[in-house]
Amino acid sequence: MLTELFPGFPLHEIEIADTRKPFLPDEAYHFSLSHCGAYAAAIASTEQRVGIDIEVPTAKVFSIAHKFLSGEERELLNQTSLSSSQLLDYTTLFWCAKEALYKWYGNGQVDFRKHLHLLNMQGNEEEGSLQCCFQKGTPIPLTVTYRFLHELALCWVTS
Predict the structure, then answer these.
(1) 3-class SS of residue 2
(2) How many angstroms separate the CA atoms of 150 and 159, rounded?
(3) Where are the alpha helices (DSSP H) in the chain?
(4) Is the backbone of residue 109 left (phi > 0), alpha (psi -120 to 50) or beta?
(5) pLDDT in single tens digits along all 159 residues of the chain
(6) Tell me: the pLDDT tens digits for 56-83?
(7) Residue 34's closest CA among 17, 14, 51?
(8) Buried b / exposed e across 16-37, counting CB within 10 Å, b at 16+?
């Protein structure tokens, strides 16, 4: 997929960091990869840090939501009356967004509730964006773009 985005992408130069993030030592390209079930996604840039994630909504996300959602983010989910399937989709979307932010950062040691903040959401049931703040040291405002594709949530972030 990376060579589809950039013909000539130096696949043979990819290394894996201690955090398990793939990278190029010369940072000629910033890139991120994700896979879930039969799906895969990639994003790459020559200019800025990137992160991507894809997730298929499953009820399992509810059992781990307390590990990645802050009280404010739970309120954001509860601001509108969602059906049970919409609640599953949007909880998965929030997990997917935080995974994309984590991959964007790439240095590990991130507490999803403490360091990754989803502030508001704009869009609809097909696509939109989440205004976010990465807060480990100096706060960094970011936008995560999302799309729902078939049975899949897709999120990506660039800086």
Answers:
(1) helix
(2) 27
(3) 2-5, 60-68, 71-78, 84-105
(4) left
(5) 999 999 999 999 999 998 889 999 999 999 999 999 899 999 999 999 999 999 999 999 999 999 999 999 999 888 777 888 899 999 999 999 999 999 999 998 999 999 999 999 999 889 999 999 999 989 999 999 999 998 899 999 998
(6) 999 999 999 999 999 999 998 887 778 8
(7) 51
(8) eeeeebebbeeeebbbbbbebe
Residue type, 131: Q
Domain 50-158 top-level CATH class: alpha beta
Q: Side chain identity at 83, as an amino acid letter?
A: S
d(CA 26, CA 21): 15
pTM of the model: 0.94
| 3 token code pair | 């060579």
- Confirm if 135 and 93 have CB atoms less than 8 A apart: no
Burial class (CB in 10 A: 0-12, 13-18, 19+), 98: buried
* Nearest to 120, CA basis, from 87, 144, 96: 144
Give residue limits of the domains in the chain.
2-45, 50-158
Residue 8: strand, helix, or coil: coil
